[in-house]
Amino acid sequence: MAKTIITAAITGAIHTPTMSPYLPITPEQIADHAVGAWEAGASVVHIHPRDPESGKPTSDMDIFGDIIERIRSRCDVIICTTTGGGLGMTIEERVKVVPTYKPELASFNAGSINFGLFEIPDRMKITEWKYDWELPYLQMTRDFIFRNTFQSLEELPQIFEKHGTKPEAEVYDTGMINNLAYLVDRGFLKKPVYIQFVLGIMGAMPASVENLLFLLQTAQRTFGKDFVWSVCAAGRFQMPLCTTGLLLGGNVRVGLEDNLWLEKGVPAKSSAEQVAKIARIAGELSVEIATPSEAREMLGLRGA
Fold first, then answer.
1. Residue 304 falls within a domain, yes or no?
2. Residue 115 and residue 145 in contact, taking contact as beta carbons nearer than 8 Å
3. How far apart are CA 165 and CA 150, in angstroms?
4. Is 205 contained in some domain?
5. Is pLDDT of 298 > 70?
6. Angle at Cα 102 formed by Cα 184 and Cα 68, nearest 5°?
7. 3-class DSSP state for residue 79?
8. How high is the pLDDT of residue 40?
9. Is residue 125 exposed (0-12), middle (13-18) or buried (19+ Cβ within 10 Å)?
10. I want to staple 8 with a disulfide (CB 3.0 to 4.6 A). Which of 37, 71, 207, 237 is the partner?
11. Are 254 and 278 in contact (CB under 8 A)?
């Protein structure tokens, strides 16, 4: 069995500061959490910037650059920047990080979906909010489409290639595999494709073992052996689906972007705690964890 890459998604753009006191907000906090995840065994960290005053997702390139520099100065972890950004950002805002900082790896959302977060306040029983922006940000997703049209699907890989950045294709539903096949067929994406299966988002495929198997089998029928894959899942499905991913020979993603909990009733204080847990599970299954150098070779990255 090949070694497994662990990615840590550090803060994301879904959870808001009221939901967890441990969610990193400032560049220093995000970098500290990223380095901690690397120390725990992650070879990739997935980065979103936030406004250090309010905690709101931002497309500010100076903040993004501050985070990247802090991480690069302390460790050799692979930095995967978001081009999903925050809800409501334009595609131009979302992709700007690629030409600006030329990351080795960046997320590439493989299609449009309804992206619903409006049920979170009721589900978490939140009645008071730390910041005024949080509740409207979540509620607006009742009438929101996470927009990734074929035009942007064609344009973004060309920007990535120009700046030496490998796309990490975020696949939320089966049809997005067809989208990737179209892009490969037309020469916009190169094989091997790197796919992150994202399960459990309201508006996309539910998080279940059956759905992960279906996505994997569909990708195998579509690309043969010319793809590398990883899995992440929202909330309480994170560890069960990542454990399944390990058993299937895939790579895994954990982190506070996807799940605020370490186990039932126990909040995660950092993404590093979740990395350590999935690394321990991998060890029990005799699955070796890839170092950043090994992950670069597995994914065909250019190096830091």
1. no
2. yes
3. 20
4. yes
5. yes
6. 130
7. strand
8. 98
9. exposed
10. 37
11. yes
- Tell me how crowded residue 147 is: count the other CB atoms within 10 A of its CB: 14
- Nearest CA to 6 among 259, 280, 226, 235? 280
Token pair 């990247």 is found at 68
Reading the block at residue 273, the tokens are 């705690």
Residue type, 49: P
- Other beta carbons less than 10 A from residue 186's beta carbon: 9
pTM of the full predicted structure?
A: 0.97
Give the C-alpha separation, 4 to 287, whole Å: 7
Task: Assess if residue 1 is contained within a domain.
Answer: no
301 exposed, middle or buried (CB, 10 Å; 0-12, 13-18, 19+)? buried
pLDDT, tens digit (0-9, with 9 covering 90-100), for 138-165: 999 999 999 999 999 999 999 999 999 9
pLDDT above 90: residue 70: yes
Q: Is beta strand 44-47 parallel, antiparallel or unpaired with respect to 193-199?
A: unpaired
How far apart, in whole angstroms, are the C-alpha atoms of residue 36 and residue 38? 5
At 159, give phi and psi (nearest 5°).
-65, -45
Q: Where are the beta strands (DSSP E) in the chain?
A: 6-9, 44-47, 78-81, 105-109, 113-114, 145-146, 166-171, 193-199, 227-233, 251-254, 261-263, 266-267
Q: What is the CB neighbour count within 10 angstroms for residue 99?
A: 12
Contact (Cβ atoms closer than 8 angstroms) between residue 95 and residue 149: no
| Within a domain: 171 | yes
Exposure string of 272-300, with b = 16+ CB inside 10 Å and e = fewer, is bbbbbbbbebbeeeebebbbbeebbebbe
Q: Cα separations (Å) of 97 from 42, 83, 101, 172, 194?
A: 22, 8, 6, 22, 19
Contact 160, 81 (CB under 8 A): no
Count of domains observed in the chain: 1
12: domain range?
Answer: 6-299
- The tokens for 143 are 């009438």
Q: What is the mean pLDDT of residues 281-298?
A: 97
> Between β-strands 227-233 and 251-254, what pairing exists: parallel, antiparallel or unpaired?
parallel
